[in-house]
Amino acid sequence: MGNSMTLLRQKRSLIWLTLSVGFFLFLAGYQLGLPGLHYDEAKEAGVNAMELLTGAPVTAFRGAVFQIGGLSLPLMVQDYIGALNVYLALPFLALTGVGVPNLRFLALILAVLALLFLERAISAWTDLHVARNTQRSGNPSAPPAARPLPISLAALITLTLLVASPSFVFWNRQGIFVTNATLPAVYFAIWQGLRWLRTGEERSLIMAAFAAGLALYAKLLSIWLILPFALGLIGWWLWMRRRSPSAIPRVWISAILKAALAGTIPLLPFWLFNWQTGGTFRAIGSNLGQSYYGINNADLIANLPLRLEQLLTSLRGGQFWYLGALQGNNLAPWLWVGLILVGLLLPRSRHLVGPPLLLLGGAVLLSLFTVSDLFITHYALIHPLAVAVAGIALASIFNPESADLRPTDQRRFSPAHWRTALLSLVVLFWFALDLSATLAYHRDLGRSGGLADHADTTYHLAYHLRYNGLGAPVALDWGMDAPVRYLSEGTVQPIEIFGYGSLTEPDADYARQLDAFLANPDNVYLLRAPAQTIFQGRRQIFFERVEGLGKDAFLEQTFAQRDGVPLFELWRVR
Fold it and tell me: With CB atoms counted within 10 Å of each terminal CB, which end of the chain scores lower, N or C?
């Protein structure tokens, strides 16, 4: 009877898991070509992948490549972002061609892997908690390695809340924009680390280290979760060593060395890049005090409230203005805070909720430091963990006895039945509000096509340049080069001369470079519309130099959003 009930429970859990993942793919895959291709999506995967597939010269970041025969393999796409997405995109683009939905299908696969690995991590954590309670009570249990890890109720609740969440859906459908390759790597590392703690299997420790290295290579901000988790794992092991030495895995020097090697291997391109350029260390060193975007990293009092607000905003899903309008589940932050407080107050749940909450807190504290800006998109990595803390709290508060929604107590109107009913209502209520916001965002997106840097206007710009033979326009502002290169399949290659040294003023030789292009009347110039300018001062100097040379500038074409707001301009000089 017990075995049949267990099999039935596992079957129901697997169906629940499958339906959740399928529902996510439906929500995230709908109208996948919208919003428009963001610069970071093209820059951090699309362009280099397209160049490798077409055999075009690779425009590697800082020119850093690994040469294999005549093949130049890019090492990084930014000083702190590896080229992992470039190589992951290759099979998708090779099979389906160069396009925006083609590229974003990779992001959806990575998001599904993140969901599955997060489920394993949560289930491993709850299983570890059950094992501790079993050992405390003195009851024997099956050998850890011999028992398959069941899907926990906490994990299923978490996935249910994630798959309709506006933040999870819309961040991951443009996953390269938020470097979502970090998600499956980080949560796989957490799962394997917990599995090692539970079973003592050496391979789990090695795989955890490898995944951690891969996450750091994908993007260095993965350290926000990798570091506190590693410290927590070590601290837990040391604490358990004092309390119950027989219940913890032995650590051999050989295993530590193997894990260290496994963690180093994915970072080899990172070290090779810095051996060639030193870019990462220069970027970090020059932004230690004040970042490129003007963030004071020492001002924790100002940075912490902003980050906490961003965490709550990500739970609400209220940051996607560029889809056409602001939507969101305004009750989600309140539910989240309330569930965690109750979980911490109840003796039966605080030991389950406390450690994941500490991990989340450590990640938030580390996020106060940045070499760029306090972008809310950084929290694409942390958001699933925040939802997981609520999912663990929900399961432990309302249904502590079972890994299933069906109560173990079969008496009618038992306390277990009331808890299960209340649990179901809370989950369905949160899910319904998230789903409503996500559907509203899709409605707005279908109307707007995306706004500003996410507008589908870049499609029209790229196709106009491509099919009018304008293969080398001179770009005087940011945001046009990479999308145009990718969307035109390399037939249009804008020349950026505005200089990245400062957002507020051009480089010292900007005017000289501009004069060299102005001498040729066949050149065309790409600018942002005045209200959309990002790199200041370049537009003004352009018109000043044209006038100084006794020439006239002609606006040939304006490219606007669907609502008529101009974004880009195409100019000629005679």
Answer: N
